[in-house]
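Hi V.,

Quick status before I head out on leave. The structure for the redesign project is tokenized and pasted below; the design run finished overnight.
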């Protein structure tokens, strides 16, 4: 992992509208270590969203996910986060476009995202095409670093 490059891109996000840095190929444990080095909270999206969505009707999921994450981040006295354990965002029941959700959050918060898929130089993907949670996006804002 090229810490110099990550720190340089992280610092450069301050001047951007979307403060979003995708780290592809970074395991969640490495994301946790990175968050400590950068002194930003590591947020486990799978755990938090699954807990918060338990008492919400499935039909309300699409409207609630972004709001739940916004409120959670506001609870911290921080403006920067490392997001990991985020596979839940690809669950079809949530009806989310993970990239758009992260872009919206990155207007208010500086984000490092431990992307659980691949990057081919053009598109961020998650899973394989035959998988029910397959996702691909080539039209996105943010910086991508493959580690």
């Amino acid at each position: 992992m090229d810490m110099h490059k990550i720190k340089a891109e992280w610092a450069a996000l301050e001047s951007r509208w979307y403060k979003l840095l995708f780290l592809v190929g970074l395991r969640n444990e490495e994301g946790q270590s990175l968050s400590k080095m950068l002194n930003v909270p590591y947020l486990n999206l799978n755990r938090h969203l699954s807990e918060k969505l338990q008492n919400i009707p499935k039909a309300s999921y699409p409207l609630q996910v972004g709001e739940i994450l916004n409120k959670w981040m506001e609870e911290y006295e921080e403006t920067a986060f490392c997001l990991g354990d985020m596979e839940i965002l690809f669950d079809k029941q949530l009806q989310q476009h993970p990239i758009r959700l992260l872009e919206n959050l990155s207007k208010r918060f500086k984000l490092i995202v431990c992307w659980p898929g691949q990057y081919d130089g053009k598109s961020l993907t998650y899973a394989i095409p035959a998988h029910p949670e397959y996702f691909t996006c080539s039209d996105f804002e943010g910086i991508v670093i493959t580690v």
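Above is the designed sequence. Helices lie at 3-12, 28-38, 45-53, 61-75, 98-106.

G. will cover questions while I'm gone.

Best,
W.
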